[in-house]
Known about the structure:
The complex is a heterodimer. Chain A is mostly helical.
Amino acid sequence: MIDLGEHAQFIAAAYIGVFLGMIALVGWVVVESRRTRKRLAELGDKRG
Amino acid sequence: MTLDDAPKMRWWNRLAHPGQFVSWTTPLILPLTILTAALMALGLWFAFFNSPADYQMGDTVRIMYVHVPSAWLSQFVYGAMTVSALGTLVWRHPLADVAMKAAAPLGAVYTAMALFTGSMWGRPTWGTFWEWDGRMTSTLIMLFIYLGIIALWRAFDDQLRAARVVAIFTLVGAVNVPIIKFSVDWWSTLHQPASVFRADGPTMPGSILTPLFIMFFAFTFLSITLQLVAMHTEVRRRRVATLERKAVRGESA
């Protein structure tokens, strides 16, 4: 890892914040998608 | 009229059919995911291992590689929602309100990310995490508009009625987008003026522009992928609602 200088904690915090936001977003989109597909299957819809 | 005589559906009409849209765009998800992951990995490598520190801001310039794409998506998603709002109100396109509903939570998260990374960049550069200046305040208002839109969608059981109300609210809120864009020109502000998309070209060297553009495309493709999956989910959610209504009618009959 390169030396990020005297403000390394701000740079690290920015990247960690963005990637936590992205993980939350991807997780939420995937979980909602699976939940809806499961409910459709329970209702007997064959289109998926 | 036989099946052969029937008029062929135009691509626009076929795209307007929610079921057709889901089957046409599902094969795009995997290639888009791979492309996004590759661009993200390349962008991070450039950001940390193959780009110089700025002569004024030092290493904090690396925050720009996540701040600018987040801020761009925050405004781009709102722009797309504004077009969808017109699609809902003017053309009554069946997918317009689906797109609008799927986009709002994404836009809210991008706006929150832009505010957070801007704050992390502001402290070492300006000496403060926050200042009530034009750019920052109008971006915070954008976050509240997104949250208001999400709350409005949830306030209605009838999603078609919700779509019309949300579309009007979205069009009113669109006035904030040019305010964000031009706030740095109109008012005295801590935030720097535009330095990438300018009539006279970017003011940054190529060594800093390269990681910025790679991250810009990585974030954009991530957003397109998430938007498609969220739209598929919304189409299926409406099918669930229809089937549940039919099931209730069947039970009561």
